[in-house]
Amino acid sequence: MGFRSGYSGAVLASAVFFSGNAAAQNSPVVLPPIDVSWSRVGTGGIVGTSTSVITSQDIERSPSQSLPDILGQQAGVQVMHVLGGPTGNGDLVDLRGFGAFAQSNVLVLVNGRRYQDFDLQGFDFSQIPLNSIERIEITRGNSGTVLYGDGAIGGVINIVTKTASPGAFSGHVEGAVGSYGFGEGRVSASSTSGPWSSAIFANAAISSGYRQNSELSQQNAVGNLSYRTLEWTGYLNIIADSQRQNLPGALQNLPLVYPITLDNPRATVTPFDWAHKQDFGVTAGFTRPLGSGVELIVDGGVRRKFQQSQFFNYFNNPFFVFDPSTAGPANYVNTVMTTSSVTPRLDVRHQLFGVPNRLLTGIDVYNTQYDSDRPQAEGLPDIHRYNIRQTTASIYAMNTTTVTPALEISYGGRLQRNLVKGQDVYNAAADPNAGFYASNPQAAPADSSEWQYALHLGYEYRLNPTLALFGRAARAFRLPNADERVGAGNPFDVVIPPNLNLKTQTSYDVENGLRVTMGKFNFQTTGYIMELTNEIHFIPALSANVNLDPTQRIGWENNASYQLSEDVRVRGGVTYMQATFRDGPFAGKTVPLVAPWTCYAGLTWGIVKKLLVLDVTAALWSDRRMDNDQTNFQPQIPANATMNVKIGGEYNRLFWSLAVLNVFNTNYFDYAIASASTPNFFSAYPQPTRTLTLRAGATF
Questions:
Q1: How far apart are CA 621 and CA 573, in angstroms?
Q2: Is 405 helix (H, G, I), strand (E, B) or coil?
Q3: CATH number at residue 205
Q4: How many whole angstroms separate alpha carbon 467 and alpha carbon 515?
Q5: Using CA atoms in the order 621, 627, 630, 636, what is the torsion angle rounded to 10 degrees?
Q6: What is the pLDDT of residue 132?
Q7: Which of 62, 203, 344, 447 is the Cys-Cys partner for 298 at CB 3.0 to 4.6 Å?
Q8: Helix, strand, coil in percent for the chain, rounding step 5
């Protein structure tokens, strides 16, 4: 569970219609093939969706030091920083407006397989070494649910890791130092011998942190071993991560409870809180042709994650006055989570009604066991002991038909059986608050089963080599995760007992878009509408998760790039998003933590070819409602902007760079929790001001 336990019909039409286009008919456009390598759909994406790809070169050139910030330089991606760490641990990456619950609505894959955790930690982007990433594929919208299962309401982010480079042996080593005690080392090595190849990428980072009690120590590694012949391919992937993070907590804007406020952004009101995490995963599989145009892919994996965190009560004195010197343990969380999976599938290229088709079909079986003990402190008897088991079994199919060389249509569906069993073992004898609750603090057991389904229909039509139209309609679903069912589980904070029987969230999407390719200029625009039922959300005032009244998102995403010259490239994007409640007491109100407007811009300039390269990125976001402000009566998180600059180069096998983040030394926060009753009162997580990072290394 870790430190995140408390966080919590018209469609925009294309500007060009399907009018007759003689040029398109006289000069057929051949659509590019959909490549299936690591991922199930590859960089071709799901037909009809808005997609983008971040390459390893983009990552290397970016001034940003963390994966969430690199993702933030894409249309429709909002990033919320919480801990402000240099590696991005704890950051929220949001696709299409889900605020505090972004991690549960954006499905993250590693090499085409689910890597989403069954808790609010979601996917920790800091656990993948940046130097291990070959590319990142972003598929927006909920159609990814058909291929990958629940959780892809906002979209899918597929991280494809590098494999061994051709040749007997190659390696890479680099080090970095930076502001606030930041230090990092990266190393990688790969080797190929006949049909065998192997690679390992490792990273270690430390930071004293921008704020008091925000120290970080992290080590992670990614390794792969593969065997390739003309008849079959096998692989073994291993991911490991260890992290120790202190938790500085949020600061209030007014001294109503704590004497320390946002006027002292580097301070903390939780000087002893901490969270640790250890994570290990193994995935293995093989690919084998079964005949002409038929390929069998079988893989499976096991992951184990251990999390421990300790939270303190800083009012542990007779007068209920904030005094860290008298702090006593309030809540200890010790969670073990094991996820196992088997995902066989077939990739079939066939002819149907005389036209080429490609069918991807398979079975997914996932089993997750979540065990979480909640005493006051390590070694004390458990106050709550939560045990939840979730098993899902699915069958799915996605077919793509090349109707003409200029028109592709895809259609598919998933049928999924979900089984959940959960219980809360409550020990009143260990609970210092026993007898003071308004209701029974023990959660009612869960024993449920249900069928859910996802559907997708999409098209892409190339009017000519310059212009393409695309669109889709889809239905998807998301299951509640373990932390959402359990809640904070803090005996000092429970207003109502946890709800192990939260309802499944569903969504319906429709979108249309336009792509333009004119030589060195590329442009994509997309309009969409999404309607959701039973959206799952955390209400801090209740210290519980609930199913919201119906909500919706309406959005417009735009991104463009232009190669001004051989050495200069510019890029930018603008996104508008309206996230509102459709019904209930908050009808018409804005969903918290979703900025209506976000913009990004970037410039890459090879001043002296590879010897000296400048990269500048900027991000701007509008006001957004604070978490817990469903009534929209509190002040908003202010609009702001940041700029990052990086200058570097390489000579032979040596390379270096100097990055300056938040160049203009902006004081800002982009995550805050509003009081449910006290006007103009909130808590926020201040982010680092200007930081510098110097990096150097060599390849061999």
A1: 12
A2: coil
A3: 2.40.170.20
A4: 6
A5: -40
A6: 86
A7: 344
A8: 5, 55, 40
Identify whether the C-beta of residue 304 lies closer than 8 Å to the C-beta of residue 313. Answer: no
CA–CA gap between residue 401 and residue 573 (Å, rounded): 31
Q: Which residue positions in the chain have pLDDT lower than 50?
A: 1-44, 488-494
Which pair of structure tokens corresponds to residue 609? 């070819």
Above pLDDT 70, what percent of the chain?
89
* The predicted structure's pLDDT at residue 486: 67
Continuous segment of H or E residues that includes residue 280: strand 274-291
Q: Which domain holds residue 60?
A: 2-699
Both tokens of 56, joined, read 């390893």
Contact between 637 and 668 under an 8 Å Cβ cutoff? The reply is no
Taking the C-alpha atoms of residue 377 and residue 625, their distance in angstroms, rounded to an integer, is 35
Instruction: Give strand ranges (E) for 66-116.
Output: 77-80, 92-95, 106-110, 113-114
Residue 688 CA: distances (Å) to CA of 238, 394, 692 = 33, 44, 11
The CA distance from 577 to 483, in Å, is 28
Q: What's the pLDDT score for residue 596?
A: 95
Select from 56, 211, 62 the least CA-distant residue to 128.
56
* Spatial CA neighbour of 599 closest among 571, 563, 637: 571
How many domains are there within the chain? 1
Q: 472 and 45 in contact (C-beta within 8 Å)? A: no
Relative to beta strand 155-161, strand 106-110 is parallel
Query: 259 in helix, strand or coil?
Result: coil
pLDDT digits (tens, 9 = 90+) for 418-464: 998 989 999 999 988 887 777 778 888 888 899 999 999 999 999 99
- pLDDT, one tens digit per residue, over 610-622 is 899 999 999 999 9
The neighbouring-strand residues paired with 672 are: 684
Q: Which of 342, 320, 315, 344 is nearest to 330 (CA)?
A: 315
Query: Alpha carbon of 104 to those of 92, 334, 403, 624: distances in Å?
Result: 10, 21, 36, 20
What's the predicted TM-score (pTM) here? Answer: 0.87
3-state SS of 312-343 is: EECCCCCCCCCCHHHCEEEEEEEEEEEEEEEC
